[in-house]
Specification:
seven-stranded antiparallel beta sheet; Immunoglobulin-like; nine-stranded antiparallel beta sheet
Length: 721
């Protein structure tokens, strides 16, 4: 079994908190480009800061001592003195590279300590670097790994021919400046492990390019069959839990703009160290503390560990692997931190079997307050939050292993963003729940008393109505709760009005929306009306008909819509009236107007435009000209055009007639009356007041007295005396 375990930094460098994350991502390598990058590297011995000349390793930097006598003058001494624990024996150790031209091994340790690519370092004045001391494997000179970072990228072009076939196999790129450490070792137990940090000057500007510094830990020996084509059929321990190799392209945060001006999505960001690597070292970025593990070794058998790092695609910008001192161990003692303490729980039992499950050295174990195991811890069954140490002793070899065990509070936490209801009555509320910490495996239980739309077991929610929602997040160890209010939107108001009622002779009307919430309007009708502008608040409308309904849809500043309607009432304007006229006579000295159309209960009439009556008859009219109109009783403004009617003056009676009389004679025994005035076609005459004739002559009259009168033919009532 191969495992990479991450360790987060704390202000107390002794506190190493195990973080197990399984991440997935998509990544493809770009085509290698051999065009050299343009740039220069400053001489780190001539750094000028604040007007003062400073060299590397000043300030809060790691320290690379020039002291072979103390730490080791050969690769084997460095491994035995610094890297390896007492639970394994070290055989042959060599440092160098594989020639790219011949493929043969070349020793390359060098005689000048600080100019080597492999040597001792310690944390010096660095803060939160994560590893107190150990060995550094670099593609450049180890002295130039000291901070602070002098530029965006620093380069020691060490050896153009220095490569490693296994690193080339990982990336598919050409390797340069390779630094390869090979260790033959024999473990006491069946597991090995060591801790490390990978750092590079390629960060972050070369993320997403072909320039990806790479390294590997290649383990080979009895029972190991890697099957990946590595030397000696090795397995590569320098991988993340998801199988990704460890390069600048497989571990980095989001990069807004790389050297090519491209945005690069984050990949395995949890393993990227957002600390002060670029202050503590020359490198511009690196990983958190990682732990490489392998289970399944055969105790007492010899194995080979090859640790290799190289620049990819060119010799620009160095990279390094920091190996923690005494972390290369046959891990016969396995320590599993107890489950984090949930809210309300204050202690854990670090003597529980689960804490040392997987150990090949059986107990009894002893418990200590310090890493050197000099201060006994007396209450390990009730350990509050803190870091303690468990010591195991192998009875056969005498190998002592001391490992930390950390009791921590659960860091299970949650936060959320929410989308309240956008428009009143909608169901578009949503909750985006973010959960961090804990075991990393979460279940969700949602409830609500007054909302709807929940998916009870989903992390995030959408399609919610207004209401209060509660979620319980359980990571299998602890549970936390969030209560979230999805707020209802304020209702919007839409009110439509029109300028009616209007008469049928009206050619246009105006509409208006008066709700007060709108920022835009859209009018329509259910008829053939024509709008002056259907997208304004108060359009003018023509070609409308009675009963036509107008609809307005308003939109407010949140994009919410509401509709309102208004219906136009169009009242008939009467046609111009027709009428019968009775003129004044001598018998009836007044006139009469009788409306003949329009007729009906819906109309009333006037002969002066002011006074209206329901009756169609206007009587007792004196002479004059009258303006006859009709109007709609439901809308008195709907008035017809006027009919002009003249009532004549009262006619005059004819004057008293004059006549010639011819008396009877013996010859003509009858008399004759001949009217001499008034004369004319407008008169007719009578000698008995009853029978009238147009002729002025009355003949064949017998003796008697006659009453001669004249009358107007146009008005027979107008009779003379």
């Amino acid at each position: 079994m191969i495992k990479i375990i991450t360790n987060l930094f704390t202000s107390d460098k002794r506190f190493l908190i195990g973080l197990f994350l399984i991440l997935s991502f998509s990544f493809s390598y770009g085509q290698e480009v051999n065009k050299p990058r343009v740039g220069s590297s400053p001489d780190k011995s001539l750094l000028i800061k604040g007007g003062q000349q400073e060299g590397p390793g000043t300030g809060n930097s790691i320290l690379v001592p020039n002291d072979d006598a103390t730490y080791g003058s050969t690769p084997k001494e460095l491994v035995e003195n610094i890297l390896a624990s007492s639970c394994m024996s070290i055989g042959n150790v060599r440092f160098g590279y594989y020639s790219k031209t011949s493929g043969n091994w070349q020793n390359n340790f060098g005689s000048t300590t600080l100019d080597r690519q492999f040597g001792y370092f310690n944390e010096g004045n660095a803060v939160n670097f994560g590893i107190e001391e150990g060995l550094l494997l670099s593609t450049g000179k180890i002295k130039n790994a000291r901070g602070p970072s002098a530029s965006g990228g620093y380069s020691d072009a060490m050896n153009n021919n220095a490569g490693d076939p296994d690193l080339a196999l990982i990336t598919g790129r050409t390797m340069y400046d390779a630094a390869v450490l090979e260790i033959d070792f024999t473990p006491v137990g069946t597991k090995i492990e060591f801790q490390f940090i990978f750092a590079s000057d390629e960060y972050l500007e070369y993320c997403g390019t072909q320039y990806e510094d790479v390294f590997g830990f290649f383990l080979s020996g009895p029972g190991i069959a890697g099957g990946q084509g590595y030397q000696n059929n090795a397995v590569n321990l320098a991988k993340l839990p998801n199988g990704d190799p460890i390069t600048i392209n497989t571990i980095h945060p989001y990069v807004a703009s790389n050297v090519n001006g491209n945005a690069v999505p984050a990949v395995n960001q949890a393993y990227y160290a957002n600390n002060n690597i670029n202050v503590s070292t020359e490198f511009d970025g690196g990983t958190v503390v990682l732990t490489a593990e392998y289970s399944g070794l055969i105790s007492g058998q010899q194995y080979k560990m090859k640790m290799a790092i190289a620049d990819a695609s060119d010799q620009q910008f160095d990279a390094g692997v920091f190996l923690k001192a005494r972390s290369f161990t046959s891990n016969a003692l396995v320590v599993n931190d107890p489950a984090p303490l949930c809210l309300g729980v204050t202690t854990a039992d670090i003597t529980a079997p689960a804490v040392t499950a997987g150990s090949t050295i059986s107990g009894p174990y002893t418990y200590w307050q310090d890493e050197a195991a000099t201060i006994t811890y007396s209450t390990p069954t009730m350990a509050p939050v803190g870091t303690y140490y468990i010591k195991a002793v192998d009875s056969d070899s005498g190998c002592e292993i001391i490992k930390p065990v950390t009791v921590s509070n659960s860091d299970l936490d949650s936060s959320y963003t929410k989308q309240n209801i956008t428009c009143f009555g909608d169901s578009n509320g949503s909750i985006d729940l973010s959960v961090t910490g804990g075991t990393g495996s979460y279940t969700y239980s949602w409830t609500t008393n007054d909302g709807s739309g929940l998916n009870p077991s989903s992390q995030d929610q959408s399609g919610l109505t207004a209401g209060t929602y509660k979620v319980i997040v359980d990571d299998g160890n602890c549970a936390i709760e969030e209560t979230i209010l999805i707020e209802e939107a304020n209702p919007i108001t839409a009110t439509a009005t029109n300028s009616g009622p209007v008469c049928s002779t009206t050619s246009s009307i105006s509409l208006d929306e008066t709700g007060g919430d709108a920022v835009s309007w859209s009018w329509s009708s259910d008829g053939g009306a024509v709008f002056s502008n259907a997208t304004i608040k108060n359009p003018t409308v023509t070609n409308f008909v009675d009963g036509e309904t107008f609809t307005v849809i308003i939109t407010d500043g949140n994009g919410c819509t509401k509709s309102a309607t208004t219906t136009i009432d169009v009242n008939e304007t009467p046609l111009e009236p027709t009428a019968d006229v009775v003129q004044p006579t001598c018998a009836v000295p007044t006139g009469k107007i009788s409306i003949t159309a329009p007729l009906g209960a819906g109309f009333e009439y006037s002969i002066d435009g002011t006074n209206y009556q329901a009756s169609e008859d206007f009587i007792n009219l004196t002479s004059g000209t009258y303006s006859v109109t009709a109007r709609n009783t439901s809308d008195p403004t709907c008035v017809s055009t006027a009919l002009s009617v003249t009532i004549n003056d009262v006619p005059n009676a004819p004057a008293t007639p004059t006549a010639d009389v011819v008396q009877p004679t013996c010859a003509v025994p009858s008399g004759k009356i001949s009217i001499t005035s008034p004369l004319g076609a407008g008169f007719e005459y009578s000698i008995d007041g009853t029978n009238y004739q147009a002729s002025v002559d009355f003949i064949n009259l017998i003796a008697g007295t006659y009453s001669v009168t004249a009358r107007n033919t146009s008005d027979p009532t107008c009779v003379s005396t």
